[in-house]
């Protein structure tokens, strides 16, 4: 049988987002399983622990949303910020916004390393894409986009389109091979950071 050029499989378009998904799959999967093992939706108290994890992580990256360089590369960057929503969610549940002594991973006003920022923002944006399931669970605790679960709300244009516009911009950034490796390393570091926060702030039910 002769294979013509039209029969040949098409080469897949290179995608930094797809490369990141593949490279971080293990870290992401382990984190998801650890979070769910902590039963974050068993009651509002345990959900509050989940909010504290979210608060600490988004505090780490909050300065990125004010960065002019990143804003020029990524669509609606300020509108993707979620720290304020998380703080309001904590207040809704009567949980004091924690005072954290350590400096955030990205300091306000500091020069930002682009590959590092892209790795951490990839993790943040991916978590928002997957938050639809979490929001359904939060509703069972009588929480919603207007009370206690604001930070889990989808974008007005829909989660899928919101994610695709981000990944298209992420793919379009020109980086060297070495810089691409640093994007991956920083995405893994971001997942590891969240895992460390979960271990600290979300003990398993039998250890609580």
TrEMBL record:
Q: Which GO terms describe its biological process?
A: heme oxidation
Top-rank lineage group of the source organism: Bacteria
A molecular function GO annotation: heme oxygenase (decyclizing) activity
Give me the ranges of the annotated region Disordered: 1-25
Q: Name one Pfam family in it.
A: Heme_oxygenase
- Give the residue range of the signal peptide: none
Compositionally biased tracts (Basic and acidic residues): 9-25
- Name the record gives this protein: Heme oxygenase HemO, associated with heme uptake
